[in-house]
Write a structure and sequence with these properties.
CATH architecture of one domain: Beta Barrel
Shape: globular
Largest sheet: 5 strands, antiparallel
Distance between the termini: 39 Å
CATH class of one domain: Mainly Beta
Radius of gyration: 20 Å
Number of helices: 3
CATH topology of one domain: Lipocalin
Number of strands: 29
Structural class: mainly beta
Helix content: under 10%
Amino acid sequence: MSSASLLLATIIASTSICVHKDSDQTGTGQTKSLIYCLGASPDGKLLAVGGIRYPTLERRAGVMDLKSKQIRCLGTPKGVIGPTLYVPASWSSDSKQLAFGLFTAPANVPHEYWGQRIMDAAAGKIAADADLIYFQLWTASAETGEARSLSVSNSRHWENPRFSPDGKQILAYDFSGSNVALISVPSRSSLGFLLPSTVWSRAGVHYLGYDWDPAGKAAYLSVGYGRMRKADMSSGIWQIDLESGDKKRLSETTDAFSLFVSASGRWLGYTSKKRNAETGDYSWMIYLASLPDFKTRVVSEHGTEYWVAWSRKGDLLAFCEKGQIAIWTPATNKTVRMPVPEGQPRMPSWVGSTDVIVHGVDNREIWSLDTASGKRKRILTVTEALEKLSADAAKGR
């Protein structure tokens, strides 16, 4: 199955709940609509949120003021499926812009249609990049919600943008070539790809396997699969100097699905998927590597998602396990686990330079957790989020 088809399957899985006729209620009376915690701004004042309303599957994303709880809806196009919500948005360092993916296939298409297209693509009956499968890059103003397309080439499969530290460039994933592009934000133009296009015949870079170094002069890249055509850049984790083009292979590991560099640049966290041979269940291995020597250690064998979050001070690493949030501290090399009794935590994000984490719970609520005191607070429910997003969108923009 192609990367585009795999992503489409992820989108469907992320929105699939047992549908009870055409209502927004499950058999137990719980809403089927979903809310997503998409990341706090660097200044700690704002939070990107997203929601999916059932039964229409209408998607919206917006920016919430963490103090007033007001939400500004992002002005994305109407009549399309909408923002991709399964990875957080990327914030510029000044907290004025955010970048995100947009699924531009027509809205209100029957759910079964997409499942059939995935099966047809996997069977080779239709091209992997057939019409109606479009993923674009967009940026939006955090203050006004005004959004603009950032797609810069003929590729129709762009995702997971990551702002550079100075906010002038973006790294983004191109599904057409399983490669990572460097994009200029001011000129909205491509500056080239990190992986030579001649290296792989089918695939190369892991979907979330790239990040910036804190200085913005280099990028880290996880090359993990595909058939290699030439040996100038084999599989493994690489550091690429974006000014000189020099490449340094840091590790031979091939399964780093996602990777994240700490604020100090001293650590790299990455994840890989692990299958339990007895139960058949999957979990995420969480690894840490020191930089530049790349000495690795396993922090967890029981991660529940491929997303981890570095604090903006102290290089604390937060990630989710079943029913709890785990926090690794470099000073002690120990991991503290804090239960989340409300449900399964998702997509943790540090609020500015504080000790507070915001995270989703079962895609029904968003909570905050003070990691110093242990104090917890509910910030937003799915009903509140969708009402506020719809109300702001109705104002027109």
